[in-house]
């Protein structure tokens, strides 16, 4: 195989005319290729409904790339950016900033108590007895607020020593997010406000969880935003396609299959596309890494990460690994179904 540095890069992916409807196919502009003929690189919009993965070390340009993609996607669909560190407000020039707080709550949604329990189980790493106690306490009704969750657990009657011990340990795990300042952050009343803002937004909607100082509260808020998006699409309250840009995803998921992995596997049929961003591809699940159509690789420093992402691109060899380690800020190796080979691209900042 020739070195990627000397291979020709794919020509511009033009917008062919749809032979049935006579309309141009939607496309997403990311930047220009280099180390070869300089050409604009466009990715078909439909490819993003099969999910995208952006990886790179801190400071490599991931957030700028995600902002570019979010801005482009918002021309054709609704976009929610789950902002872990509060970085997107300064990068996106349009849209709505939803700063999660008691004034802008994250609703606990779902018609099935089991779904709510699964989110808490993922966030708090609940043991099977703790998850059982939570599900038993909630009964058949989805709670209106986090306060109601705590009240129902405390009211549950202990009928054995193991139940009491598990109940107390469950309450301890919930103690970090049961402080008064979080009492109104997780409330079902937030559904209508969130939906109204999302539908009216002419650009990406930033769901900013950075104001929550506790990492457990941030994780819970992030996962409930994702659950809310699925809820709104299932009930057809959002008619457009919906894309979820999930930053710092390593804070939300590990190698175990959890809520986000399930979402990744199932939501495409609802018209939801995920754009997943992480510093380290080695800590996300194999299913997410394997079943993501678009991969945007900024510079990586860890040998394990470089080897893993190179294999996922089918390009593992010394010069490719060396290239990934030496990419400059804003440069990325991009691959997706439809390209004959990956392209080296300088990402264009959002405008």
How would you describe this protein?
With 351 residues, the chain is α/β, with parallel strands linked by helices. It has helices at 62-73, 113-124, 128-138, 146-155, 161-174, 190-200, 215-234, 259-266, 286-290, 303-312, 318-326; strands at residues 27-33, 40-44, 52-55, 78-83, 96-99, 205-208, 242-246, 272-278, 294-297, 331-336, 343-347. An 11-stranded mixed beta sheet has the order 2-1-11-10-9-3-8-7-4-6-5. Helix 8 (259-266) links the parallel strand 7 and strand 8 (272-278). Helix 2 packs antiparallel against helix 3 (128-138). It is globular, with a radius of gyration of 22 Å. Mean pLDDT is 85; it is low at 1-23.
Strand content: 15-25%
CATH 4th-level superfamily of the largest domain: P-loop containing nucleotide triphosphate hydrolases
In CATH, what is the class of the largest domain? Alpha Beta
Secondary-structure element series: EEEHEEHHHHHEHEHEHEHHEE
Globular, elongated, flat, extended or rod-shaped: what is the shape? globular
Question: What secondary-structure arrangement, pairings included, does this model have?
Answer:
Blueprint: E1 27-33, E2 40-44, E3 52-55, H1 62-73, E4 78-83, E5 96-99, H2 113-124, H3 128-138, H4 146-155, H5 161-174, H6 190-200, E6 205-208, H7 215-234, E7 242-246, H8 259-266, E8 272-278, H9 286-290, E9 294-297, H10 303-312, H11 318-326, E10 331-336, E11 343-347
Parallel strand pairs: 3-8, 3-9, 4-6, 4-7, 5-6, 7-8
Antiparallel strand pairs: 1-2, 1-11, 9-10, 10-11
Helix pairs in contact: 2-3, 2-7, 3-4, 3-5, 10-11
């Amino acid at each position: 195989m020739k070195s990627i540095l000397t291979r020709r890069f794919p020509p511009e992916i033009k917008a062919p005319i749809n032979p049935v409807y006579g309309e141009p196919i939607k496309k997403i502009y990311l930047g220009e290729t280099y180390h070869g003929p300089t050409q604009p690189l466009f990715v078909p919009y439909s490819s993003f409904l099969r999910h995208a993965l952006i990886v790179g070390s801190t400071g490599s340009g991931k957030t700028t790339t995600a902002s570019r993609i979010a801005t482009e996607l918002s021309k054709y669909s609704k976009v929610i950016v789950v902002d872990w560190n509060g970085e997107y407000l300064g990068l996106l020039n349009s849209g709505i900033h939803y700063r999660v707080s008691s004034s802008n709550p994250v609703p606990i949604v779902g018609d099935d108590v089991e779904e709510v329990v699964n989110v808490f189980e993922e966030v708090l790493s609940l043991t099977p007895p703790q998850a059982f106690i939570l599900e038993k306490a909630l009964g058949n009704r989805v709670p209106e607020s986090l306060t109601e969750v705590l009240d129902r657990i405390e009211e549950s009657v202990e009928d054995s020593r193991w139940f009491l011990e598990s109940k107390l340990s469950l309450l301890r795990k919930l103690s970090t997010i049961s402080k008064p300042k979080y009492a109104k952050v997780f409330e079902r009343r937030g559904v209508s406000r969130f939906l109204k803002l999302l539908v009216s937004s002419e650009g990406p909607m930033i769901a900013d969880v950075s104001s929550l100082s506790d990492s457990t509260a941030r994780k819970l808020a992030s996962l409930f935003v994702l659950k809310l998006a699925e809820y709104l699409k299932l009930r057809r309250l959002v008619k457009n396609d919906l894309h979820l840009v999930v930053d710092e995803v390593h804070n939300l998921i590990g190698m175990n299959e959890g809520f986000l992995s399930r979402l990744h596997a199932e939501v495409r049929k609802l018209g939801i596309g995920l754009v997943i961003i992480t510093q380290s591809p080695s800590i996300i699940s194999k299913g997410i890494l394997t079943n993501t159509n678009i991969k945007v690789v900024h510079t990586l420093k860890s040998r394990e990460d470089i080897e893993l992402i190179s294999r996922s691109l089918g390009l593992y060899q010394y010069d490719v690994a060396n290239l990934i380690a030496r990419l400059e800020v804003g440069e990325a190796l991009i691959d997706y179904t439809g390209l004959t080979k990956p392209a080296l691209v300088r990402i264009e900042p959002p405008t």
